[in-house]
Amino acid sequence: MKSKASVRRITAPVQANLNDLINVLYNFLPLTSRSKAAITFKTIFKESGVEAYLVGPENKKQALLQGFTKLYRKHDKLPKIIVRKVITNSIEYRRFKRKPLTKDELKKLSEVLVSLGIDMKSEISKIKIDESIPKITIAPEDLIKNLEKHDLDIALLVDPLQLFIDGHFNEAVRKAVSVQFSPC
What we know:
Blueprint: H1 12-25, H2 41-47, H3 60-74, H4 78-96, H5 103-115, H6 121-125, H7 141-149, H8 154-157, H9 159-165, H10 169-180
């Protein structure tokens, strides 16, 4: 397969700016995920037809640096398209992770992009984000009362039930299973 011709040169200052870009984007999304439905850097690169750019190092930072360096070197408009997709998907992902994307992060991203000759200042400044941390959903009171009435094993009444009451449902299930299947 013939390699795509370069549209930009990677000089030392450009490489430094690409490093800064990766430092900003690093926490926006995961590199990969076991879930087929998850949006990751790899899925975004794949849907853009450049998944091969992220093949190689398993270290996230190195993989992103390699991928964005190749992307920047070989494509004129695609870096902007991919950054747009990363921002859009990271807003929801980070909210789900209870660490919302901030205006400061978007501002830093905008500045680094400008240093690379990719002007998205106007577009990024118009993005509306909610920096508040979403509340944990807690179990309904009647469900908690019903659980407390049941003749549960004493090991389940301590940690797993309290975790459930506090809204940590997955952890409560994990703890309950580990308690139930631990050797006596």
